[in-house]
Give the backbone structure.
Amino acid sequence: MKKILNRPADYVDEMLDGLVAAHPEFYRLHGDSHRVVARATPGPEGKVGIVSGGGSGHLPIFTGYVGTGLLDACAIGDVFASPSAEQMADAIRAADRGSGVLRLYGNYGGDVMNFDMAGDLVEFEDIRCTTVLLADDVASAGPEEREKRRGVAGMVYAFKIAGAAAEAGLDLEGVTRVAQKAADACRSVGAALSPCTVPQAGRPTFEIAEDEMEMGMGIHGEPGVWRDKLRPADAIAGELMDRLLADRPVERGDRVSILVNSLGATPPEELYILYRVVKARLDAAGAEIVMPLVGRYATSMEMAGVSFTLIRLDEELEGYLRAPCDCAFWSVR
């Protein structure tokens, strides 16, 4: 294992120390667990709080998106491991400004179980909670079993849109409605070229030949839909777009945003090669692209690969997408 670290057991805690030290204007550690990141300056009294949580190894998701117009707090576990229920409860407490808290996170069994338990813990403190799950990975289940899909980079759009709704003063029901609307509008799919290594495991998450790729692989190395020889960039982008548009067709006049996301090791140059195909396909369909995102927005350690996320917008969602936000990894002015 070649990684820049000290002891593998200290990897996440030392990462969080560095994150907060580098960006004190955005982040602070909350509570005794050392695993909850909250806004350096809490939102105003009466604002609906938004929390997320999940395993480390995916920066900027999850903790990176704590900030104005985004998340209020986030609980973080070991690499690819769920935070505990108590850590999630601490995040809810940090986010609460008296008007309730939305739990907004990905559809993974451990996260669902622990956030449900966290909700039970804070219920005794009169903190009202709602939940929206991201289930946007079209490769992980068919449309008829959409509730089984994994939550992946669609969280980026959901955090942004729900965060803007909360900043605008919507109540808990309103923020939850908008977040669910954004989650329902997202579709994602990815392709991996190489594994990553979890520090505490000390070995790659899966094995793949140097000349192979896997279509539809999950962000933790979950199996995809096929494995075969590495294909040219245009063929990869074409199939990713085929899968997105088959699940959520785009019609002439639709307004959409698209995220072309590095899973960690894929450089910006290669993302822009892929974006050529994305734009050509959406232009051909007659859709208008709003605020395209190209870069590292939701990673999987040092995995080489890419994911595409498409969100179809209406006037409400577009307004919240364009609204200001500010964190160490993404600002909209």
Observations:
- The radius of gyration is 19 Å.
- Residues 237 and 274 are 6 Å apart (CA to CA).
- The first strand starts at residue 27 and ends at 29.
- DSSP finds eight helices and 15 strands in the chain.
